[in-house]
């Protein structure tokens, strides 16, 4: 039984961790914190979560006795906390963006923060289990991927060699439910009357998940931004609670057969617990993945064979955040990868 | 052309006033204020409102030159502002709850505020045009009714003499869209992920519109709380932007014919611009009134004739707030009651 | 391992059964039918349901080999099918309303159908496990309760002796998500543009769950309709997918202390796996029960002690239909009552 | 006063025509039809529409006496009806897609219909007033544009000469509310439980508005599909009632300054009643155009100046259908272009 601490357990990702860990057979939440609710009982704040008799502790509590700590706090707070936790010998899964990018200059540009622990950037393992399974197994620090990055990378990387044939910028037109855009932050952006019956793009050409997708696409495939151009990511805000659907536009130097695309995705999906590829002619919707750790993918090509549209669907709070974090925990502690996940 | 000032023009009611006044032929908005947006142009804050070239002024601006001021600010702020405005000779329509109740003790109990201008409570005219038309015409200070009160009173008062036959507490089970529950207030209650796919009751036995309904029901009908008991109001929060549907339960001492009920409502509706009564067997939904100043009403009785269910539908931002305020303005300045309203 | 057949597995309740049984350790779905999708693979119709390799069979398929059949088909179809299934020696859980009422005249009046198997009405066990646990254990035929009836009865019956002190009709103002009002039926009532941003009452004084609540309230408590009047049920349609919130109005002949009410609900809840009662001052919302088999209840009394408002929340597709059906299955086959349920 | 007939007045576009014409000072609806509701009174079907005392007539009624007929019926029905109406000397605004494309082969391919009146394709005027004002003035037959086409063309055409510098396929990632995807059609696609909390792409590489955009982009600008490739249109279904937001991706052969883009859109917008261009850095959301005939546009370029994202927002039922039809009527009959429109 692994002993868990959750720093920031009352935000959207933290609450989802509590919900999912409630049905995990080998994890025991020993300690949970919240600056907003410290001193309150979990059941009073979240009556729908049964089985937690604890009280929210302050964020800066000592985590001695925990084997693993999940950080579900803002980037700056993660930056400050991680070095101490590692020194204490605790393993860490960080759900913030603090340790995902290798280049601290790029980090500063997109996060508007200077990086106070750059010496850990090399060590941190990017927690996308489909591509970093063995590194995750032994990691001290896992940087859990961003939600847009997860949906985009799983819709792109299985194409493998084909990504070397791209001759234009991959375009990722992504649409997220409100919880993927920071739903508990109390600002105009997320209040009901601003979001309901509304839809909009935001952070065009400037979202912080763009360099994350860019970096791992370059690391893990023959895609080259020099040849094809940098990826373009346009996030949008959907009037619904959960889920990210990414519509990805690719253009190949020469025609690609749809059976080649189909074959690569199918082969990849067969080897993975949580990735599913739909048959030719079918595209996923959000409902297929909401409340599960699945990523579902479909693809269509046009008559020329040079244009391809890929659609990827995930639940931003599960595969895009807390579910993936638990998948990472399962690998780190030798449990079944699917333990506690749907 | 009446010269208008709007204090608090960027809240939900204030913005609705701007929207509606944009197509009013005889009103000119001379001055508008917002503490949050002061110094910003209306078009930058609300690009969907065309035709306003002004800049938001601070709330405490001098209103000299205005014939009429709408107050769309919190109760305490209205309490403080109204006496000065009246002294200046400006007529006022107050959309807050500050001057709706006659009894300052009841006000204190439900609003948790002490009343600093009780001398105006007798003079203030309750701005329900269907019942106070002539008083409104000459009023200096109109207290625009609460949204729940408007829906409930128009669903009850047309019954006239029948209200003297009630032998049980009228029960008003009311359901409001988010804008009726303070949609721009940035708290957990109104953020998207709390409201979406959710529904709940709030302020059971304690909502501040209960005494407002109670007072005018007693003033304007033979209903007596001594005989029938005080009215019971239960507000609920719907996951939608606009509209209040009130389901009203009545029990009569002796059977009442549905044709009697039908007749009373129909006769009343015929004499009113904005009240519609549906034929027997039909009940209104919210869609019938959203974005209009209408109140639509339907009624059903059971086999015994003693139980009656009345359903009333309004748009809380129009007939329940800003539309009704403009209807009051039309009466105060001798315009067609329907000018600028749908 | 109990061998399951599901007749009508592609409707909303049928699909929910498939979803829930997917994580049940002791049930194996051997056979599933759909008139609409017969011949299609489950995964093609519901890609989000993993683990079903079967093809939908025609509804009239022979169920030999099944230990238990769930019927998730219309009332008339259940009426016709149940006698044959019982003759074959198969146990049945019927999710329709065909066998819930004891009186075939009342059935005809509310369901507009004549009852073709009245001899089974006495034998059928009402599948509300909180009150009929031992009868369910040995039942051949379980009539799974209606969704409105489940929410209302669990909000009323725990009051026990206090129900003998009612002197007015209990009023149940119930609000359901679209799936509780027949969401897959392709008519105007359930298309998106009719429901979205809308709200309305329906079947006032005539909903078929009214006699179901009436009957079991009389059977299981000292409530008497002669003294207090028949219960009044008003269903409403919420613009959301799942959940029923019932606001229940009670009036007692003499004052009742809130601690008495609290005590009765708390004691009851402690003895039940799926019923939770909130502390004084708290009322449940829909989010607390969606996707779980829980019923959550809260209550408030007014100053007089004679008026009481009870709010009960369930997921209409889980505790109000398929989850409760699995709870009944667990009792019928000796499994842990919570097996496969959250 | 122009005498109007509306064939198909009870569908979504037809009902919106009724709503909008209700406040038009110079149009009188003489005749309205519906196959579904023939014989019923308008007010019984749409109680929220006041001022219509008529009864729905059968679709094949004689329109003698009308000056103008709006057709809001399916493509096949329009194809059959238009020739007769023109022979009768009635002017026609057709809201279907029957007469928008010039090439009957392309029509057949995308609409899966053979064109029975090809002789009218040359005469029909494409009802995009911003580009065909003078032709519309004298037209006998106006083909009202498709909703996706309106949003896309107004987001592209103002770029003028810059469209000759495109070197890649323009990509239009469009997101529509349910009414834009055929909201009253009673199929699974539009029922509430399929759409709510869901999102998906549909008709990838095959939507019938793609050739409409392609044709007028080529006609009215230096864009060449030989150089840049055919436009790519991906429609998506949003869980909301009204509105289309189009995110348009352009790539220029050489860098373009954002001030050049800004200048072209601003100049165009100044000359148009219903087109608005936001300041640099601002992008429109859906709320800015819902219930109005406006099209609002914003644009951003990346650092290289070669990639540009344009966002265009319209209400699919107003500027994308019935509002634009009334704008066309205003031009055809010499009224103020804004009469009856917001």
SSE inventory with pairings:
4 copies of one chain form a homotetramer.
Chain A: E1 2-7, H1 12-21, E2 27-33, H2 42-45, E3 68-71, H3 75-87, E4 91-94, H4 104-111, E5 125-126, H5 129-138, E6 141-143, H6 147-156, E7 171-176, H7 192-195, E8 200-201, H8 209-220, H9 225-228, E9 232-237, E10 244-251, H10 258-270, E11 275-277, E12 295-301, E13 307-314, H11 318-332
Parallel strand pairs in A: 1-2, 1-3, 3-4, 4-6, 5-6, 7-9, 11-12
Antiparallel strand pairs in A: 7-10, 8-9, 10-13, 12-13
Helix pairs in contact in A: 1-11, 5-11, 6-8
Report the total helices of chain A. 11
What spatial order of strands do you see in the largest sheet of chain A?
8-9-7-10-13-12-11
State the helicity of chain A in percent bands: 25-40%
Largest interface: A-D, 40 and 41 residues
> How would you sum up the major sheet of chain A?
7 strands, mixed
What percentage of amino acids of chain A are in beta strands? 15-25%
Oligomer: homotetramer
Query: What gross morphology of chain A would you assign?
Result: globular
Average pLDDT for all residues of chain A = 95
Brief summary of the model shown:
With 342 residues, the first copy, chain A, is α/β, with parallel strands linked by helices. Chain A has helices at 12-21, 42-45, 75-87, 104-111, 129-138, 147-156, 192-195, 209-220, 225-228, 258-270, 318-332, and strands at residues 2-7, 27-33, 68-71, 91-94, 125-126, 141-143, 171-176, 200-201, 232-237, 244-251, 275-277, 295-301, 307-314.
């Amino acid at each position: 039984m692994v002993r868990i601490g959750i720093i920031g357990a009352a935000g959207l990702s933290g609450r989802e961790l509590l919900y999912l860990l409630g049905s995990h057979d080998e994890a025991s939440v020993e300690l949970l914190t919240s600056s907003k609710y410290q001193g309150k009982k979990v059941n009073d704040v979240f009556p729908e979560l049964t089985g937690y008799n604890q009280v929210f502790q302050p964020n800066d509590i000592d985590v001695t006795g925990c084997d693993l700590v999940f950080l579900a706090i803002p980037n700056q707070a993660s930056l400050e906390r991680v070095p101490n936790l590692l020194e204490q010998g605790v393993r860490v899964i960080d759900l913030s963006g603090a340790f995902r990018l290798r280049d601290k200059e790029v980090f500063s540009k997109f996060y508007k923060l200077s990086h106070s622990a750059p010496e850990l950037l090399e060590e941190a393992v990017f927690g996308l289990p489909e591509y970093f399974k063995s590194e995750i197994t032994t990691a001290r620090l896992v940087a859990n991927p961003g939600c847009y990055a997860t949906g985009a990378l799983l819709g792109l990387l299985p194409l493998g060699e084909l990504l070397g044939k791209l001759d234009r910028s991959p375009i990722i037109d992504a649409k997220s439910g409100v919880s993927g855009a920071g739903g508990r932050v109390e600002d105009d952006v997320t209040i009901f009357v601003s979001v309901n019956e509304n839809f909009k793009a935001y952070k065009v050409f400037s979202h912080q998940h763009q360099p994350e997708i860019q970096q791992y696409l370059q690391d893990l495939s023959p895609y080259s931004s020099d040849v094809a151009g940098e990826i373009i990511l346009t996030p949008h805000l959907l009037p619904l609670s959960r889920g990210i659907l990414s519509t990805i536009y690719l253009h190949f130097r020469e025609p690609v057969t749809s059976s080649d695309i189909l074959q690569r995705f199918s082969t990849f999906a067969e080897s993975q617990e949580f990735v599913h590829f739909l048959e030719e002619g079918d595209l996923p919707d959000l409902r297929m993945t909401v409340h599960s750790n699945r990523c579902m993918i479909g693809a269509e090509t046009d008559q020329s064979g040079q244009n391809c549209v890929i659609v990827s669907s995930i639940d931003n709070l599960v595969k895009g955040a807390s579910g993936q974090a638990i998948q990472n925990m399962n690998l780190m502690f030798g449990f079944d990868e699917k333990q506690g996940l749907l």
